[in-house]
Amino acid sequence: MSTITISARSATTDPVPRNVNQSAHEAASISSSCESPAHLRRALDHIFHRAEVCRTEHRAIVEITHSVARAVFEIVAGYRSVSQLAFVMEPSCIAKLQRRALLETAQYTVDPEPGTAHGQILSLHLDRCFSGCWECTAILGFKNRVRAVALKIEPWHGRWQVTDVELI
Predict the structure, then answer these.
(1) Which residue intervals are annotated with compositional bias (Low complexity) in the record (predicted)?
(2) CA trace torsion 122, 164, 93, 112 (10° rounding)
(3) Which residues pair with 141 in a beta bridge?
(4) pTM of the predicted model over 0.85
(5) Is the predicted pLDDT of residue 13 greater than 60, yes or no?
(6) Are 119 and 131 in contact (CB under 8 A)?
(7) N or C: which end of the chain has fewer CB within 10 A?
(8) Can you list the domains of the chain with their CATH numbers?
(9) What is the rounded CA–CA span in Å between residue 127 and residue 165?
(10) SS3 string of 3-37?
């Protein structure tokens, strides 16, 4: 299971503690080698025997989850049309979203209404199943509310498709 939390980063002055006798050049080389995400990723890939395909697949799932989760809440709020997700969702999911939009907006129309604040994704939680599908949750923060959506994403004819969606 992987978790991606999106939050403000705190600035630190010196992440690597320095020795009194250590030169600035040595400290810079240690700092750059320890802070490099690629350096850590290569080490972890070697330890856990991960392949390049896994990273590209993970990146694709993160992008799909992020965009679909935002779009789902825009549909429910009435800012977006359900038909815009037809290329990535099964028809049963689209029908579920239409019903949910009717319940929450009480006036679902085919044309999306112009909207302003659509919320911000606070975190993504991704879990790969043994069958090859991904179970993902996204937590969105609005002005006065926090909501979550759960997605099941499966490979389908060489691309990814959302096969189940739940709003919380």
Answers:
(1) 1-13
(2) 10
(3) 120, 146
(4) no
(5) no
(6) no
(7) N
(8) 24-167 (3.10.450)
(9) 15
(10) EEECCCCCCCCCCCCCCCCCCHHHHHHHHHHHHCH
